[in-house]
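Ticket reopened. Same input as before:
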Amino acid sequence: MCAWFAPRPDAPTDGVVAADRRAALRLMAAALVAAGVLPWPAARAGENDALAFASGSLEAALRALGATLDASPEIRLAVPDFVENGAVVPVEVTSQLAGPQTIFVLSEANPFPLVARFVVPDGTLPYVSTRIKVAKSCNIYALVLADGRYYSAVKATTVTVGGCGNG
Amino acid sequence: MAEPMRIRALSKDGVIDVHVLMPHPMETGFRTDDAGRPIVAHYITDVEIAVQGRIVLSATLSRAVSQDPLLYFRFTGGRAGDTLRVTWTDTRGERRSDEAKILGS
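Engineering reply: fixed in the latest deploy. New output:
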């Protein structure tokens, strides 16, 4: 297990502010659901990204996004089969869909699976490449929201234990 | 204050290739220091990239983006000589903006 995730997987030391923020988010989401603004259990597509970032499991993150995993040949996800160092895993998402879209990257085994979100406006190619931390060997997902619908791609990556030093 | 970003934007056949490197610790909040004390989370949450005032990419990052985040993307509608401006905001509310001119090929 990598040191940057290991000690207390369920208690990040964000301090009081972040804990309050999470509590506030939950409260806000609950209020929205109660008011009938958000359907339950699924949020409307693209409506609840902040809650998705605070979600502690892949299922919860997808629920917050209002997403389902519909594998699509239009989405290409490139992640190495094997990585030595889970702290630096290159990830590349390419979409063949037209028009503005939002690209999400998720790492299933991370304490907070939603890793990043990229809003791609008209004129920008639906392609993004970055480097992420992956807690341990697991599935990486690319999720693309285009025209109110989610498309996805999945790729498993194996993280070599020895590559995970403190830092 | 964080170090300056490294930005490279190169125009080729009407498409601008952009590389951005943002020096930042991206602390997850899950680590401890040598004395066993927890290290408080500190990471970039928002990134906005604009060309001549037009937003070409906005990103929301989590603690799981690697230290010194690297972004690579492409857009159209820019020209060599245009100014690309990258702005990030982190969990402490710090902000940093840097600019680079788009280079021709």
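The beta strands of chain A are 75-78, 82-83, 89-95, 101-107, 114-120, 127-132, 138-146, 149-159. Helices of chain A lie at 15-34, 49-53, 58-65. Please confirm and we'll close it.
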